[in-house]
UniProtKB/TrEMBL annotation:
Belongs to the alkaline ceramidase family. It is found in: Membrane. Its EC number is 3.5.1.-. Its main location: membrane. GO terms for cellular component: endoplasmic reticulum membrane. Zn(2+) binds at H136, H140. This is Alkaline ceramidase. The chain crosses the membrane at residues 13-30, 37-56, 62-86, 93-110, 137-157. Pfam families: Ceramidase. It comes from Gopherus evgoodei. It catalyses: an N-acylsphing-4-enine + H2O = sphing-4-enine + a fatty acid; N-(9Z-octadecenoyl)-sphing-4-enine + H2O = sphing-4-enine + (9Z)-octadecenoate; an N-acylsphinganine + H2O = sphinganine + a fatty acid.
C-alpha cells in the first residue's frame, strides 16, 4: 500500500495481461492444429487495452480488483472443467494451484483491508517478525507459486491432448517440473 501510483501500475496492469494469456491458453489447449484463434486473441487484446485506458483514467483500485477477479474466475471455471471432466487425474495439481493462489489472494486482501493497522503493529515488532507480516509480499510469493503450478497444469493438459506423455517430477523432492516424452510410435 506504499507504492506510488506509477509503480502500482507496473504491478497491477501486468496482472490483467498475464490473466488474459492464461485465458487464451486454457481455451486453446484442446485444438489439433498449430493455429491462432484470432477472434479470441482480438477480444483479449482489446479487453486489455480498454481496461488499461479505463484504469489509467479512473485511478480506482477497486476497478482493477473487480476486473482481475473476473479474469481469475474465468480461469478457475475453465480449470475446474478440465480437472473434473476432461482429465480428472489432474485434480491434485489443479486444486493445489488454486489453493496456493487463493491463499495469496487472501493475504492480498488482508493487506488491503488492514494496511494501516498492520503498519502500526509492525513498528512495535522486532524487525524479523515485522518482515514476515508483509502480506503484500506473501501475496506475490503465493500467487507466483500458484500461477507456476497453473502453468504446469496448462502444459500438462496441452501435451496430453497432443498425445505426448507428460510426467511431473520434483527437483530436490520439492519443486515440480514437467518432463515430456514424445508419443509412442505405433
Amino acid at each position: 500500500m506504499t507504492l506510488k501510483y506509477e509503480m502500482q501500475l507496473l504491478d497491477e496492469l501486468p496482472m490483467i495481461y498475464s490473466c488474459c494469456v492464461f485465458v487464451y491458453c486454457l481455451y486453446e489447449c484442446f485444438k489439433h492444429k498449430n493455429s491462432v484463434n484470432y477472434p479470441l486473441l482480438f477480444v483479449l487484446i482489446t479487453f486489455s487495452v480498454i481496461v488499461s485506458i479505463i484504469y489509467l483514467n479512473l485511478k480506482e483500485p477497486v476497478f482493477h480488483q473487480i476486473v482481475y477477479g473476473a479474469l481469475v474466475s474465468i480461469i478457475v471455471l475453465r480449470s475446474v472443467y478440465i480437472v473434473l471432466w476432461v482429465y480428472p487425474w489432474l485434480r491434485g495439481l489443479g486444486y493445489t494451484s488454486l489453493s496456493v493462489f487463493l491463499m495469496g489472494f487472501f493475504f492480498w486482501n488482508v493487506d488491503n483491508i488492514f494496511c494501516d493497522k498492520l503498519r502500526g503493529l509492525r513498528e512495535k515488532m522486532p524487525p524479523v517478525v515485522g518482515a514476515v507480516t508483509q502480506f503484500h509480499a506473501w501475496w506475490h510469493i503465493f500467487t507466483g507459486l500458484g500461477s507456476y503450478l497453473h502453468i504446469l497444469l496448462s502444459l500438462y493438459t496441452r501435451t496430453l491432448f497432443l498425445k505426448y506423455r507428460p510426467k511431473v517430477k520434483f527437483v530436490f523432492g520439492i519443486w515440480p517440473i514437467l518432463l515430456v516424452e514424445p508419443p509412442k510410435k505405433h
